[in-house]
Amino acid sequence: MARTMVILGGQWGDEGKGKIVDLLTEKAQVVVRFQGGHNAGHTLVIDGKRHVLHLIPSGILHEGVTCVLGQGVVISPQALMDEIDLLNQKGISALEKLKVSSAAVLVLPYHVALDKAREQAQGDKAVGTTCRGIGPAYEDKVARRALRVVDLLTPSLFEQKLEKNLEFHNFMLTQYYKVAPVSKEPILEEAERARKYLSNVITDVPALLATSYAQNQNIIFEGAQGALLDVDHGTYPYVTSSNTTAGGVATGSGFGPRYLQEIIGVTKAYCTRVGGGPFPTELKDNIGKHLAEVGKEVGATTGRPRRCGWFDAVAMRRSAQLNSMTWLAITKLDVLDGLKEIKICTGYRTPEKMWDNLPVDCEQLALCEPIYEIWPGWQSSTQGIRTWGDLPKAARNYLERLAQLVGTPIGMVSTGADRRDTIMLTSFE
Ligand code: GDP
Ligand code: IMO
Ligand code: MG
């Protein structure tokens, strides 16, 4: 029987999803992105070589794998073509493996202009978006005016729809935000290039996935961002504009939810966040700086420094519930090497009450003080360790406590950026 696996972020993104997807693709024939766009930055390190993917699924480095962008993804034609070109320069022919949903919404230059103008106007209340136009593109989708991949195939219709969109968005840009309008010609040129470039990969994705499943092909669904950035369940309004949680897999790909078997929650052994919004366990001290330095915590898409803090079991418990996680893939254990003590947040405190679950309301979360448990660190290196038994006892105790607090078993532990620096506790045969 075909095996299906959802691999998604359990925190605020950048948990190491790319690495885990790349590794598990050894056992898969299809890898599907179902939400987000080129706001994502997924890093793969293979034999010391680093690859960063934004839109293209992290299975692309394997032979014989079909990489799919489902209709829940928002696609910048320019960003997609650039990424394909970059992979080509490295000798990876992405186009041969790629399928793109005809129903996916396009991200176009006016979305980027709106994203930037809006962030600018919000001042210190800004979300801290990646300024890739992701939010405005999803808004156009639900407003039923978006241009979609299929529109690229009919240039006259594309132009008509584009004109209507530009009329509306340029009004907003010039009259409300007082910034420059976006012109039509460069977008038509981009669309024309994309039509020629992508026409052979435009696909009926639900039909493709149903056929793959019927043919016993193993399918991985690759999440972008993380559960706490989900537009419905995250720390709203400091979230992205898509459903990053497991519920988004079926809508974003057209693959029936009854056939989803395992949900793997990727989480760091500590916590990071990039952009604005509450982050109860954030460390603004030397330990925070240490985690950022050792963990090389710099955004793979925007180059922004990531905020760092202790593992937040309250937030991760919520995330495990939201996603019905089967097991955890805990990454970056090695970053904690050498610390004298390690804290785990087990609850929150506000002046009125104690919390053992994440407040639904972000204003409340901003008031929460973490309650910590303190665990002894390990004074040796876990870098590159590949078996559970080789981990220092203190590291095993720490990981077991995380799993216990989250209520989800551990299936994998990552001890380095490289594909092979991984402890497998689950069989993938
Ligand atoms: P993603 O967006 O979830 O795919 O994660 P990113 O690629 O944005 O960020 C994760 C970063 O951590 C990347 O630079 C990875 O190469 C790196 N990484 C992944 N797993 C490990 C690990 O176990 N140890 C260390 N030191 N780095 C890791
Ligand atoms: P991966 O897939 C971390 C954050 C932004 C901002 C918020 C909204 O690499 O884990 P957006 O541009 O989506 O409208 O920004 O979401 N964000 C991410 N943070 N990892 C990501 O992707 C992210 N994609 C968006 O920083 O706070
Ligand atoms: Mg990332």
Question: Mind sketching the topology for me?
Answer:
Layout: E1 4-9, H1 17-24, E2 30-33, E3 42-46, E4 49-53, E5 66-69, E6 74-75, H2 77-89, H3 94-97, E7 98-101, E8 105-106, H4 109-122, H5 134-142, H6 155-176, H7 184-198, E9 202-203, H8 205-214, E10 219-222, H9 247-253, E11 262-268, E12 271-273, H10 286-294, E13 307-309, E14 311-312, H11 313-323, E15 327-331, E16 341-349, E17 354-355, H12 362-367, E18 369-376, H13 393-406, E19 410-414, E20 422-424
Parallel strand pairs: 1-10, 1-11, 2-5, 2-10, 5-7, 6-8, 7-9, 11-15, 14-16, 15-19
Antiparallel strand pairs: 3-4, 12-13, 16-17, 16-18, 19-20
The structure holds guanosine-5'-diphosphate, 6-O-phosphoryl inosine monophosphate and magnesium ion.
Structural summary, described in words:
The chain is built from 13 helices and 20 strands. The protein has three domains: 4-102 and 203-262, Adenylosuccinate Synthetase, subunit A, domain 1 (Adenylosuccinate Synthetase, Chain A, domain 1); 105-197, Adenylosuccinate Synthetase, subunit A, domain 2 (Orthogonal Bundle); 267-424, Adenylosuccinate Synthetase, subunit A, domain 3 (Adenylosuccinate Synthetase, Chain A, domain 3, Alpha-Beta Complex), CATH 3.90.170. It is globular. The mean pLDDT is 97. By secondary structure, the chain is an alpha/beta fold. A hairpin with a 4-residue loop joins β16 (341-349) and β17.
